[in-house]
Design goal:
Layout lengths: L2 H30 L5 H40 L1
Helix pairs in contact: 1-2
């Protein structure tokens, strides 16, 4: 795992999160008019929450990787 992987992982999960947001929005609109039931809306919400957690974790992993790299680089300079 390296910095490139960290960025790629974050970008992929950001896209998945954005997609989950759109799916939830569509299902919410359908729910409002009775086109989908509570179960479908709950599934879309659970997927959205899961994607949000995974995306946030990927962002934190990238930030931690960058911090570690900065520490290692500064130690190499000393």
């Amino acid at each position: 795992f390296n910095l490139v992987n960290a960025y790629e992982n974050e970008n992929a999960l950001k896209e998945a999160y954005e997609s989950a947001k759109e799916i939830y929005r569509i299902n919410d609109e359908k729910f409002q008019v009775g086109a989908v039931g509570e179960y479908e809306l709950a599934q879309a919400r659970a997927n959205l929450e899961s994607m949000a957690l995974q995306y946030n974790e990927a962002k934190l992993n990238k930030e931690n990787y960058l911090k570690a790299l900065k520490i290692l680089t500064s130690n190499d300079l000393n």
